[in-house]
Amino acid sequence: MTPKAYRLLRDSGTAAAEPGTTVFECAGYDWGQACDDTCLTGIRHVSVTLRPDGGYPFFTVPECDLAALPEAAITDGAAPPGAFR
To answer: Contact 46/52 with Cβ under 8 angstroms?
Structure first.
């Protein structure tokens, strides 16, 4: 199963993920980090990664800073430039 893909709408605070970057829902455990960020800020957070397979490393972003992409927008399985491998 392919992880959900999103476009970042705002700066994530991560150098590799600027506005407009495609990110993917993290497929592994996030050890409660998205939940912690949600509780601390009152804004729902989601764990995402730059890897199309949903693999680590990941970071959290507010859900309101993500725009869901249709599957047709994902052209290949290659990691985007600057992605961790």
So the answer is: no
